[in-house]
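In response to a reviewer's request, we include the raw inputs and outputs for one of the modeled complexes. The three entities were modeled together in a single run.
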Amino acid sequence: MRKNWWKILAACLVSASVVAGFIGPVPELHILNESIRNVYFHVPMWFSMLILYLISVIYSVKYLNSGDIKHDIMAVEAVNTGIIFCFFGLLTGMQWANITWGEPWPNDPKLNGSAIATLMYLAYLVLRNALDEEQKRAKISAVYNIFAFPIMVVLLYILPKLTDSLHPGSGGNSTFGELDMDNYMRPVFYSAVVGWILTGAWVCTIRYRLRLLENKSNKIQ
Amino acid sequence: MKKISLALAFLLIAVCTAFAQDNTVEMATALRSSGKIWVVVGVILTIVIGMYIYLFTIDKRVKKLEDR
Amino acid sequence: MNLLREVKTLVLKDLILEWRSKHAINSMFLYVISTVFVCYQAFKTVDDTLMWNALFWIILLFASINAISRSFVQESQYRQLYYYSITGPKAIILSKIIYNTILMVFLSVIAYLTYSVIFKNPVGDLLLYFVAVLLGSISFATVFTMVSGISSKTGNNSTIMAILAFPVIIPLLIVLIKLSNNALQGLDRGISIGEIAVLLAINVITVTISLLLFPYLWRD
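The model returned the following structure tokens for the whole complex.
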């Protein structure tokens, strides 16, 4: 149980954010009304996705340095888990946008950016499928992963700031901090983010361990 | 004179309250005051906690396989 | 200094090879002209400047993908082995990037000239538009060189190249189209400085990452 404390922490943080997110007071805003509570559930998806992609890049760098196939497995499983979170983020975002902005896919730089980032990581998976040899696949996909990551960061962080966006914090919209005047939302939001990131990391490690087991059983046969 | 000013003040207050009513944002206070929001919280909490218990069992299974 | 000399020799070699066969230039020239002409047949006139701009960038994008995707494949296995024995990977990727940049600048100037001759040219700020085209061709060259290096290691080249390159190039394309739109409408140049800075920064990042990563690709 000594090593599992962070998993329990993840469960507690997410549960706490659910309770506090539904019961706690929120600023009264036009258009958004009660749906401001979605901040506790929709935004953490994107944060966990980014952290998982970051883990993937770190392990790709590690792989290129060491040549250890375990690092490559970690990198690909982080991407796999990150894509799941990305789809959750897109789906929840579309539901939310449908009632507040009037359409599920408004032409917004953040939306388009995240769609392109999804394409980038799907391309990473396609690239992996195209290569058969294990060492070569690991090496080439690691190179692509590291090559694509900074451009994705530009895409998701810098471009929306340059253009008008419906999302807070860009194009003249007020930031999240200004909306949250009584600072009540902040702790709930951060605990939700940390909880979901830990959950994502947990799922990722489970997939990683399963992959290692698969590899082991393949070798024995 | 007094009557007129009183009437004016009354009018002013009425207009003010009317505007104030326009400015309020509709929130789901009824759901909250009747306590039924707790039902929703309970349902979602059940799902979330159930999911985490499920994750824990998967984790345990993987651990068993690893120890073998 | 040794690296610089090697890069210079390699770039010269590529240029001379190209000059002798004129294969890439001729085929690209024909490609650009025929696509522009197909567009002309389809649209006749493009009155909308937004559309004019988008069409130009699409033509340039596909022309450059076709031009650069061959940059590693055309080298035979034995020649690569020969390079491997005489130079380092850094010299090779740098020389490829420089050569592709030269090729792309040339190509985009040709594309721009033919395009603006066949369609009426509505550009408001010619210098700024030229800067946008130049920056665009440089960034196409830097990004596609590395991606073509990656995709040349896989078997089925052309599809993988497109799949890998498009997500990476789209953010650049968004900035480029915005910048060139500013130029088309002849807006004040101060507005466009942010976009130019972003483009330059992305180019610097891609070149450094290519320099860092190419040795791993090469050591195969």
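As requested, we also summarize the result in words. Chain C has a mean pLDDT of 83. Residues 2-218 of chain C form one domain.
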